[in-house]
Design goal:
single chain, three-stranded antiparallel β-sheet, 10 strands, 2 domains
């Protein structure tokens, strides 16, 4: 991180130039937050599902009243299947990886379906291996632990993340 001090009219203005492309740096350290790309929030998904249920059950009820008695049970089975798919999607909508480096400690938190896994690495003895192939993840090793990160990041940005973590560890 480069600091540039500018003086104008007796007041000092401090601007911070962030050397990191994917990270947020602050006084506390450097932080990366990688999230799943979700275009629909769980709340929007619920509204969509309820509107789908309303339309589907209205059509099925109309056909049932006209004598097509099997349409309603099939519509119910369809809505249950779609609802289960939406629940699986919503459980993973908030998945994330949070990587932070502060006070000589690299902390990696991975959240998947509400389960949080946390690993801590001391600066010295940590190795950050960039992905070897296009679909490979970054591997962080040290202190007898091994964590693979970068699953919510485009493959072309994974080497950038690995480089930034190495820079933070050296700094």
């Amino acid at each position: 991180m480069c600091r540039l001090r500018l003086c104008s009219g007796g007041t000092t203005v401090s601007q911070v130039h962030n050397a990191f492309r994917l990270a947020t740096s602050s006084v506390d350290g450097v932080h990366w937050v990688l999230r799943r790309n979700c275009s629909v929030t769980p709340k929007q998904l619920m509204a969509m599902y309820l509107s789908l249920c309303g339309v589907s059950l209205a059509v099925a009820g109309l056909l049932w009243s006209q004598g097509a008695t099997l349409v309603l049970p099939f519509a119910a089975v369809e809505l249950v299947a779609v609802g289960l798919a939406f629940v699986v999607h919503a459980r993973h909508a908030t998945d994330r990886e949070r990587i932070s480096f502060s006070r000589g400690l690299l902390v990696i938190e991975q959240e998947s379906a509400g389960h949080l896994q946390r690993c801590e690495f001391v600066r010295h003895g940590v190795s950050v291996e960039p992905p070897v192939g296009r679909d490979q993840l970054i591997e962080v090793r040290g202190s007898g632990q091994r964590v693979r990160i970068g699953r919510f990041l485009r493959a072309d940005l994974r080497p950038v993340l690995a480089r930034e973590i190495r820079i933070a560890l050296k700094g």
